[in-house]
Amino acid sequence: MDDFFSNLLEQFEGKTDTTPEWASRNAVSKSAYEAVIKKAQEIEERLKITPRDLMDKLLVAEKQIVVAELAKEIGCSRAALVKSRRPELIELIDKTNVKLSAHFEINAQRKSRDRKPRKDELEARCDQLKKEVEELRKLKIGSLIEDFFSSNISEEQRRLVNKLEVAQHDLKEYKEKSFNQNETIRSLMKQTDVSRTQLQAVKVELDVIKEQLNSEKMQNEVLARRIEHLLHQLNAKS
């Protein structure tokens, strides 16, 4: 069985990392493609470090890429990622999920080689698989329904929906950039406040120095008068 999944993984090895053409058509496709690649890497790492007794407790979304969750992550509606509108993306997700399933089984088998699974573990695994099948069935039904409604709208409506999705995505990016700019402005304002405080401290120090200089000037004037007075007395005696 391990060889079967290993051979399955070999089919995915040597694939080019070049971004496909369809992923560059618009902002939604680009974000979805990048999110799939990133999510797959995260799941693979999770499967490697998850203990064997906890692997069967992982939720579907923790070991597979779920389109509904993907839509939430990139900030678009689920309807924007249906097969009729983005067939290449759905094909990528399906292939990626096959690869992730193989990773799951290989990691589970490797972690179980030191002992045979107990009866209660096998029963728990069976119950978990039944739950996953039911959950995947519901997700599939929802996807089919959305595909049906999506395929029955006019081409003009489809273009409008696409424009709306792109606009929503652009708005999300704008809000993120605006937030970052606001943070930068706040940081600059704080720096300005610090600079103002430092400048005020310098002004106070300058005022103190001016007072000292004025005091020294007055002392010098008094001293000069005393010297002048003494010189006058000396001249008078001579």
**Major sheet description:** none
Helix amount, in percent? Answer: over 70%
Low-confidence stretches: none
Give the helix tally: 8
Give the overall silhouette. Answer: elongated
First-residue to last-residue Cα separation: 127 Å
Count of extended strands: 0
Q: How big is the Rg?
A: 37 Å
Order of helices and strands: HHHHHHHH
What's the pLDDT, averaged over the residues? Answer: 74
Strand content of the residues, in percent? under 5%
| Structural class by SSE content | mainly alpha
Description:
This protein has a domain at 2-152. The longest helix has 83 residues, at 155-237. The chain has helices spanning 2-10, 27-49, 52-55, 60-63, 67-74, 87-112, 119-151, 155-237. Helices cover 80% and strands 0% of the residues. Helix 1 packs antiparallel against helix 6. The model has no long low-confidence stretch (mean pLDDT 74). The chain has eight helices and no strands. It starts with a helix and ends with a helix. It is an all-alpha fold. Residues 119-226 form a coiled coil. Keywords: Coiled coil.
Task: Fill in the keyword field for this structure.
238 residues; mainly alpha; 80% helix; coiled coil
